[in-house]
Design goal:
Blueprint lengths: L22 H5 L1 H6 L6 H9 L8 H6 L6 H4 L6 H14 L6 H4 L18 E4 L2 H4 L2 H10 L6 E3 L5 H9 L7 H7 L6 E4 L5 H7 L5 E3 H6 L2 H6 L4 E4 L2 H6 L1 H15 L2 E2 L15 H4 L7 H9 L6 E4 L2 H10 L3 E4 L8
Parallel strand pairs: 1-2, 1-3, 3-4, 5-6, 5-7, 7-8
Helix pairs in contact: 18-19
Bound molecules: iron/sulfur cluster (SF4) (2 copies).
Length: about 325
C-alpha cells in the first residue's frame, strides 16, 4: 500500500495549542537574524489563531530553515516542523510557494540500475559531497563496520527530502521505491537529518542514526577529540532525536573537554547550510551570520563537523582547520 506522506502530520489547527511564550524564538535562526516575531513559529501560531490562512503567511512559512530547533524548545510540545511542512504543502498545492522553483534542480530521482542486498546491513545515505570524496567515504564505511557490513545507498532520497522541504509530494511510487531499498537493513545512517524523523515514521523499528552519532560510538574517535576542538553537531538529526542525543553529547563534552555548538537550552545552533532556502540565499537567514553566531567568542584550534556542507560553510568564514568526524582517527 502506498505510504501516505502527511498521514501523521497534524493540521495547522494544532497551532491553537500555542501559549505565546516566545521560547521558540530564542532558538530560531530566523528570529536571531531578523528579530521579527512574525517570521517565527509563535508568529505563525498567533496569526493562525487569529484566523490567518497559509496564503497570508507566505513570507513566514518560506523563511523557516527547517533546522528543527523550535521543536524540542516548545513547552506545549507542538510539532512545529511538521506543521510548517503542512503549511508549505498547502502553499505548494495552491501554486503559491516561493520554494518550489528553488527545489526544481534537486527533484530528479537517481537512476538506480541495481541494488545491493541490505539484509542486516548498515545502509549509508550519503550526501553528494561524501560520495565525491572516496577517501572520506572509505573512512566513513570503516567507521560503520567495514565494506562487508555497509551498503552505500545508490538512492539517497535527496529528491524526496527536497520535495518535502519545499512542500511538494514526490511522484506516485517514488517514496515506495526509496523505502524498498531500505527494508530489511539493520540500521540507516544519514549525513543530513531532514529525513530522519520521517524515516522513523515510514519504517518503524528501523534504527535511524546520524553519521556523527555512529562515529562517536567508537572510542578511537572520541579519543581523537581534544579540549581545544570545537565540535559541530548536524542540527536536523540532533533535534529530531534530541531527548536521547542530548545525553550522548553531554557525555562527549565531559569525556573529551571539547566545546560543542549547543546553546543554553542544549539545542544545536545550526549553520543552516543544508537548508533549501539558505543554500540559495533566499529568505532572511544568512549562513555566514549563523557561522559567526556559532563561533562567537570561541577560538578553537580545530573544528570537527558531522556534515560536509556545515564544514564548507565554516571554512568560508575562517581559516581554522576543519575536519570531518569520520576522518579524525585512523583506526578505533
Ligand atoms: S525549524 Fe528552525 S528556522 Fe524553522 S521555525 Fe523552527 S527554529 Fe525557526
Ligand atoms: S514555544 Fe511553542 S507555545 Fe511557546 S510561542 Fe513558540 S510555538 Fe507557542
Amino acid at each position: 500500500m502506498p505510504v501516505a506522506l502527511f498521514r501523521r502530520i497534524p493540521p495547522p489547527a494544532t497551532f491553537a495549542s500555542c501559549s505565546g511564550c516566545d521560547i521558540c524564538a530564542l532558538a530560531c535562526p530566523v528570529w536571531q537574524q531578523t528579530h521579527d516575531l512574525r517570521l517565527t513559529p509563535k508568529g505563525r501560531a498567533t496569526a493562525l489563531q487569529g484566523g490567518a490562512s497559509a496564503a497570508d503567511l507566505v513570507e513566514s512559512i518560506a523563511a523557516c530553515t527547517m533546522c528543527g530547533s523550535c521543536v524540542p524548545a516548545c513547552p506545549e510540545e507542538i510539532d512545529l516542523l511538521a506543521m510548517t511542512l503542512s503549511l508549505r504543502a498547502a502553499l505548494a498545492a495552491a501554486g503559491n510557494s516561493p520554494l518550489v522553483s528553488l527545489a526544481a534542480r534537486y527533484l530528479v530521482p537517481p537512476r538506480v540500475t541495481s541494488r545491493l542486498p541490505v539484509h542486516l546491513k548498515t545502509v549509508l545515505l550519503a550526501e553528494e559531497r561524501l560520495l565525491a570524496d572516496p577517501a572520506l567515504l572509505s573512512a566513513a564505511t570503516l567507521r560503520l563496520g567495514g565494506p562487508a557490513h555497509v551498503v552505500v545507498a545508490a538512492d539517497s532520497g535527496r529528491d524526496i527530502a527536497t520535495a518535502l522541504e519545499a512542500g511538494l509530494s514526490p511522484p506516485p511510487g517514488r517514496l515506495e521505491e526509496f523505502l524498498a531499498g531500505l527494508r530489511g537493513a539493520m540500521r540507516v545512517v544519514t549525513t543530513e537529518g531532514f529525513l530522519n524523523p520521517l524515516l522513523k515514521k515510514w519504517l518503524p523499528g528501523l534504527p535511524v542514526r546520524s553519521l556523527g552519532e555512529a562515529c562517536l560510538a567508537l572510542a578511537g574517535i572520541r579519543r581523537a577529540l581534544r579540549p581545544t576542538d570545537f565540535y559541530v553537531i548536524e542540527a536536523r538529526a540532533y533535534h529530531a532525536d534530541r531527548e536521547r542525543l542530548v545525553l550522548l553529547y553531554d557525555a562527549l563534552r565531559h569525556e573529551t573537554g571539547c566545546d560543542i555548538n549547543l546553546d543554553l537550552q542544549r539545542l544545536a545552533v545550526p549553520t543552516v547550510a543544508t537548508s533549501l532556502n539558505a543554500r540559495f540565499g533566499s529568505g532572511p537567514v544568512r549562513i555566514a551570520e549563523q557561522v559567526k553566531w556559532i563561533l562567537e567568542g570561541r577560538h578553537p584550534k580545530r573544528i570537527v563537523v558531522e556534515n560536509l556542507e556545515d564544514g564548507e560553510a565554516i571554512r568560508r568564514e575562517n581559516d581554522v582547520e576543519v575536519a570531518h568526524v569520520a576522518a579524525i582517527a585512523a583506526r578505533d
